[in-house]
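Internal ticket - ligand job 272, D-glutamic acid:
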Amino acid sequence: MSNLKPIGVFDSGIGGLTVVKRLAAMLTNENIIYFGDTARVPYGSKSNQTVIEYSIQDTNFLLSKDVKAVVVACNTASSVAIADLQNEFEIPIIGMIEPGAEMAIGKTNNKKIGVIGTRSTINNKAYSGKIKSIDPTIKVYEQACPLFVPLAEEGWTNHKAASEIAKEYLKELHELDIDTLVLGCTHYPILSDVIQKVMGPNVTLIDSGIASAEVVKNELKKNNLESDSPEKGICEFFVSDIPTTFKSVAELFLGKQIHDVHKVDLETLWQD
Ligand code: DGL
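stdout (structure tokens):
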């Protein structure tokens, strides 16, 4: 019966919804439990140790909901905590970095890949390290874009402030003749129109959510955990704080109404 359990997904905020969207489209009969750590967003400017602690707590919360696998729908957490999570927990734990890196390698023709992400993901060289370990001949150029996270959380997807900030952050990458750009933060696909406009039509944007959904599918199959339910899956949302914008931005992004957003009490849930 374990295959009827939900898949757990976590992020620091709403960014992981970009992954939920891909999972729900690909694994239509799977139930999903989403946890957004909105009380402690952003993760991208915090120390590795703090992000590891939060990631373990987030995973424990999802396990309290009896999930069969956990998707770390946060590149920051994936880049610093994936090994700890995979060591600590017995269920499949899927991160963003490897699938996104592999997808980018598969897309580039001129072997020049750009990566944008949080300060943490960029400083930890999560993507450049992974890409170069697979193909050392590829040139990787990285740029932290920390202001994209609050813009996405605000739902300012097409706001002129987003466009100005994107022009500033992407100026150098734009001049480097890259043909592929990894959106190395799950919040960034929310701003993909603006980013694509600045980079131009010849640059392929890589959404790690698409790449990781494929990996989740394979992992479930490999571990005999696929749902055999004939029903369409449902998604339940939990957050550590309910920002006024969560529901509207989530609905805008998922393209459908969401009903209940539950608040998780940090103190009681995250005591060992
Ligand atoms: N969405 C997250 C990521 O993919 C984290 C953003 C943040 O909390 O700084 O890195």
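Auto-summary: Residues 237 and 260 are 7 Å apart (CA to CA). The pocket of D-glutamic acid is lined by residues 11-13, 15, 41-44, 74-76, 118, 121, 149, 185-187 (CB under 6 Å).
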